[in-house]
Design a protein that fits this description.
homodimer, 518 residues, 15 helices
Chain lengths: 518, 518
């Protein structure tokens, strides 16, 4: 059948829930029902604790982990994370099989897990992102269940309404006290916000904190409180600081990025919401970060202060916070060392969880209050659909992240993408994979011109006097095809569905079929 | 039947759940099961909110409040609170009947609600405390259901495991933004910590924030996040600052209080846990606060820093925090203006909820980490049972508060009580009402001597060299009886049970029977 994004999806899929097709960005609403929450305390703890166990192995035993259960990890330590691989290897050694692995995301370092998929330790994956060899492996190989790819808000929704039930959450804990209080801003592997781990800690049945900085009770600040944590394990190192902070994302020197960034800032200026107290999110890509720098100049010039900035936070936003150009930051993920320090030291830099950020079924997620979001894309199409998930070979190598969430929430969603990458057109008739539906995308900014979604006549009108090179999306596509020399051949794919792209409401937005050899 | 505290309790009680008798402070454990949580979002909110309603009346309609439901309020505004009376009067005007009213506590100002009990608007009450005319009314009058009196930890437990299901929580919100983020540290009626309201906000099906300081989204800091709040109402005033801050509780000038406070501090010094990083709670009574001042001198002398202080917080603790004598404060309730400011300005002063503070069935409440707690008592008995709930006429005029919670949690629980009040002995054969069971009480400090619970031989040994006037509890009782001139006659009570004193685990610790006229 075809869903509302025009994608051909199956009516049922082995190992996957009853399929509900994507029906529009705001069409599928929460059912009646209570939120799911984790189990009541499992143990009657000794008077003063006894949560600290001697090893990961001991924690696996204590957690009651069994064949067929679901385990989770957060990805706040990014490519510096040691915890997911370490714990999964220990689980493998114990011979536990048939697990569903549901981290908030996978990163390059998780290629080491491929053998665990091959030997049946892991039989299913649920994630926001997939990269590198593991992305390729899960694109090409059919597991017992299809891989589920969800945006951050969709993951929080699935957890909070009991669709994704986590049996054991293993939390990388940069600082943890002997009774299980955790924060991410202190310790040798400080990562900043624990926005993803907070959700797992609230809802998982059993929670194990894994730390390399075990300190006396109690810590300050507390991000994840003791009453959610069952066990604490001290290890030598939970991560490599070099891989945790992804380096200072302070804007690009690439002329093409700068062209797009400047235009994106002009769109913000003219689209109608650039006013005192406006709210924004900028992606962590080079063009998005550079947009922030251009915006800063506009804000100073017009004496406009942003009410908030949200999303994954980069150092450039912390500078704006310190300058008084942003009133407060809400941070689910801290991308660089500057941001980690700011979260630790500046009370106006607030940590919050990914459910608060983006769950479409709670009583009001923060993305709903966005005026602007500026995000990147691997490719876009004439229906304004965005792909950030698969590469030109159809291999999963990206992350939905908060892309669909912020796009749905913001009054004005701006996508920056170059018209070509190498010789490949990036504005096409149809993206390989829809990760964010076009109805939630308002403006596409390329290095050769911008296009406004026809469903946003108000924005078109506002941008008329801006001097921006406005074109139709078809014109951009035609330019892209002309510059690349030819309309690209559609990728040939097999019938084998290896992954499901869920929209934030849990409907099926698209599926991933394994590409055929060229 | 007799429960483990030796009290005669009924085997069943109309309008009350299946009775489980108190079986010992640590005997009744959590059942297998999930925590209850509030409902998934009820409305698909418009893009940017629409949570702000025009009046309390409109919010009552929007909340879906119906006959027979349960409503809650928090008591952080204490005697300055306008919200509970205001909302209940509006509910009465709408003709809604048969409600269960389950605030975190009642205060003197709630005497105004008596007519609502009389006309059937309210048919049941659940609370931590009862005072004044309402306390008398609920002691003397049998409602459709007995009044349930729970300690703070017991209330959080009952809410978190679904025993107390709140249909609509009305939250007094000193500062609230247009999308429902709430804090208690800003605004004309700032009250400090929202530790009680936080629990209601998490678990109630519908949450209405009532504020007199409605501001633009978003605020900083956020104590109760937007995704838990359904509706926001602006009113002229939510409270009277004079009644909110109960005045500077900076220690007593009363010589008898000072004698007890000095002895309590000496008990702390010698009992065995006065060491670097120790954890303490002091009650908000005069003797307890004064104990803190004596303790300060000992800490300075011995260069000992407390790891944390918890409980309701008073200004004297904030001074110790600023002096560096306490590493961090955890605050569920801020008793005075100094404390409210400290919570706002000092990042080491942490707000947390009453479940984290004291729920016996979560994965580890903060009270479990206490070394010392110093609390008051109305009367104590030879079994070390404490009464803080009923006066000498058997009328409910107190609050369990965190008394049973901290007493169960602390390694050393110290109770201060004068031997006589007026001519009445305060150490007796048997307290009128058991609010905290004797097995969790370690040391009784009176102005004429102290007694150590015989089940704590370790403490007796430690205190031997202290020079403190240690006596047996029977000696103290005999002194009290001798000084008062006679052993008091037991109060005559009827068979009418009007209230149930629940222990923190939900078992029946005692019941309140209406006293007979003299």
């Amino acid at each position: 059948m075809k869903n509302a994004a025009g994608r051909e999806i199956p009516t049922s899929l082995e190992g996957y829930k009853q399929i509900v097709p994507y029906a529009g960005a705001f069409a599928t609403r929460a059912p009646e029902g209570q939120r799911h929450w984790g189990r009541l305390t499992k143990a009657a703890y000794p008077h003063d604790g006894g949560k600290v166990l001697k090893s990961v192995e001991e924690a696996i035993v204590a957690s009651g982990l069994k064949d067929g259960m679901t385990v989770s990890f957060h990805h706040a330590l990014r490519n510096g994370d040691y915890v997911m691989n370490m714990v999964m290897q220990a689980i493998r050694k114990r011979g536990i099989k048939g697990l569903t692995l549901a981290p908030s995301s996978f990163l390059n370092s998780n290629d080491a897990l491929i053998p665990l998929f091959q030997d049946g330790t892991i039989v299913a994956a649920q994630t926001s992102g997939l990269r590198s060899e593991l992305g390729k492996f899960l694109t090409m190989n059919k597991l017992a269940k299809p891989t589920i790819v969800r945006p951050h808000g969709g993951r929080a929704r699935a957890i909070e309404n009991g669709e994704l039930r986590i049996d054991v959450a293993f939390l990388a804990a940069p600082t943890c006290d002997t009774y299980g209080n955790v924060n991410g801003v202190q310790g040798p592997a400080a990562c900043g916000s624990l926005g993803y781990g907070m959700v797992d800690a609230k809802y998982a049945d059993t929670v194990v904190a894994i730390t390399d900085n075990l300190v006396e009770h109690p810590i300050c600040p507390v991000s994840i409180p003791q009453y959610m944590v069952d066990y604490v394990v001290k290890v030598d190192a939970i991560g490599d600081p070099k891989g945790i902070a992804t380096g200072a994302l302070r804007g690009s020197q690439n002329p093409r990025d700068l062209i797009m960034a400047r235009m994106a800032a002009q769109v913000v200026e003219h689209a109608g919401y650039f006013r005192e107290g406006f709210a924004m999110q900028l992606g962590a890509g080079a063009a998005s970060v550079s947009t922030g720098l251009f915006l800063r100049d506009l804000m100073v010039r017009d004496k406009i202060t942003a009410g908030m900035a949200i999303g994954g936070i980069v150092g450039a936003f912390c500078d704006l916070l310190d300058e008084g150009l942003i009133r407060t930051l809400f941070d689910t993920q801290s991308f660089d060392a500057r941001t980690i320090e700011s979260l630790r030291d500046n009370p106006r830099h607030q940590e919050y969880d990914s459910g608060n950020y983006a769950n479409p079924w709670n009583k009001g997620a923060m993305v709903n209050k966005l005026d602007y979001v500026v995000l990147g894309a691997t490719e876009v199409d004439v229906n304004f659909n965005v792909n950030v998930m698969t590469d030109s070979n159809g291999i999963m190598m990206g992350a939905l992240g908060g892309h669909p969430d912020a796009s749905a929430g913001a009054r004005c969603t701006i996508i920056t993408a170059p018209l070509l990458r190498g010789r490949l057109p990036m504005v096409t008739d149809s993206v390989q994979t829809i990760s964010t539906p076009g109805e939630t995308i308002d403006v596409i900014v390329t290095d050769r011109g911008i296009a406004v979604n026809p469903n946003r006549k108000d924005l078109s009108d506002n941008l008329k006097g801006s001097g921006l090179p406005i074109k139709s999306i078809e014109e951009l596509r035609d330019m892209a095809y002309a510059l690349s020399g030819a309309k690209p051949e559609p990728l040939k794919v097999s019938d084998q569905i290896t992954a499901v792209i869920e929209y934030r409401d849990g409907t099926v937005l698209d599926v991933i079929r394994s590409p055929l050899p060229e």
